[in-house]
């Protein structure tokens, strides 16, 4: 009876009063013990209010039903397709919207709608994939910052591909500790490309020099990423490097000269299409024939075989790095040993010599920088030590 009176009254009531009355009716549906007749009448009234001319009325209904499992499903679906001011609470919170509904909403909705979906709790893989594939940059950022989102590796990669040129996207992704190494490498490549285009556009560097500097910076970043990668993460990184054309002889030689046998072994296993354990066994036999056969199967230039062999011997003699930071830097003694050997090797090609000379310069500068850092650190510690003694 009360619902029937409500239906008669609401036809002439002002919009603000209709909104408050609608909110009360929606709450009554959820928490009141309505009779069967009143529940049917209340649902009819709420369905009628979906066509109300004022968005305030529909917004009040959406706010009341947004988080409820007991809300009428048909009404919730209708509200989710309404204008953004009405739909956003339902899109962000309603447990009644199934994955297929959300995927369709992402595909057809605007920026505000996509962002609301991206903020949902327990966002499944399929919906995350839809946002990664067609969502705007703002929605992708919401997705990255949502700790409840389940992103598959291909979704991370798609976000990088579509929005990796944006600083906000890169910064949000790079702070994630569990970001796949392959995705991290793709982000670095995007950043390198963006910076190269910027300096070339400003005529600060020629395109050729910018490309070379970009590749060197990207390779150094790859070493840092690889130094902290293990197992499947390392294999995923190596596979990404191969697909993107970055798994070159120069990068693999850099890995070996940095003492990063994890990346070196994984790279050769990927290129030679051999099990990682088999590759590691061949590399540690300390025999030139097996190493050369492996390098040949991996498709590396034969002119680099001697450099790889000398570097591998030096790595065995000097021992392996014992820290992630150590595996990210070229080891000066190893570089100089390989360079000295190749300078007397008639089979060494000019491109290899140029690369090794660059490695030698880089490793010398890095060693000097570390030395200076140690001196500064000692100067800070010594006064503190003197003060303690004086006290």
Automatic annotation (TrEMBL):
Pfam assignment, any one: DUF2336
InterPro entries: DUF2336 (IPR019285), UCP035865 (IPR014598)
Name of the protein this chain belongs to: Uncharacterized conserved protein, DUF2336 family
Species: Bradyrhizobium yuanmingense
Species classification: Bacteria, Pseudomonadati, Pseudomonadota, Alphaproteobacteria, Hyphomicrobiales
């Amino acid at each position: 009876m009360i619902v029937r009176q409500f239906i008669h009254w609401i036809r002439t009531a002002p919009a603000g009063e209709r909104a408050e009355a609608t909110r009360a009716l929606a709450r009554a549906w959820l928490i009141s013990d309505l009779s069967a007749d009143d529940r049917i009448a209340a649902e009819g009234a709420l369905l009628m209010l979906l066509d109300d001319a004022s968005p305030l009325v529909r917004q009040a209904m959406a706010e009341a039903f947004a988080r409820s499992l007991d809300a009428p499903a048909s009404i919730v679906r209708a509200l989710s397709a309404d204008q953004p001011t009405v739909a956003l609470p339902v899109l962000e919170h309603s447990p009644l919207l199934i994955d297929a509904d959300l995927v369709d909403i992402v595909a057809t909705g605007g920026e505000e709608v996509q962002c609301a979906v991206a903020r949902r709790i327990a966002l499944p893989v399929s919906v995350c994939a839809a946002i990664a594939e067609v969502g705007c940059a703002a929605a992708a950022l919401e997705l990255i910052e949502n700790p409840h989102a389940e992103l598959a590796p291909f979704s991370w990669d798609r976000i990088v591909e579509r929005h990796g040129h944006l600083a906000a996207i890169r910064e949000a992704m790079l702070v994630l500790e569990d970001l796949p190494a392959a995705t991290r490498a793709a982000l670095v490549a995007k950043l390198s490309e963006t910076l190269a285009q910027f300096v070339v556009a400003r005529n600060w560097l020629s395109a050729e020099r910018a490309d070379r500097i970009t590749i060197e910076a990207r390779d150094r970043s790859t070493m840092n990423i690889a130094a902290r990668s293990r197992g499947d993460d390392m294999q995923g990184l190596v596979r990404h490097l191969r697909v993107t054309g970055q798994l070159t002889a120069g990068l693999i030689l850099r890995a070996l000269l940095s003492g990063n046998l994890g990346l070196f072994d994984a790279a050769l296993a990927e290129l030679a299409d051999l099990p990682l354990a088999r590759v590691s066994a061949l590399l540690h036999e300390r025999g030139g024939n097996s190493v050369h056969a492996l390098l040949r199967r991996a498709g590396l230039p034969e002119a680099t075989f001697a450099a790889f062999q000398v570097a591998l011997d030096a790595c065995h003699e000097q021992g392996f790095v014992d820290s992630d930071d150590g595996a990210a830097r070229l080891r000066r003694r190893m570089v100089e040993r390989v360079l000295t050997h190749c300078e007397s090797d008639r089979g060494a090609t000019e491109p290899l010599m140029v690369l090794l000379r660059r490695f030698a310069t880089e490793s010398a500068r890095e060693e000097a920088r570390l030395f200076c850092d140690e001196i500064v650190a000692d100067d800070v510690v010594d006064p503190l030590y003197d003060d303690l003694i004086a006290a």
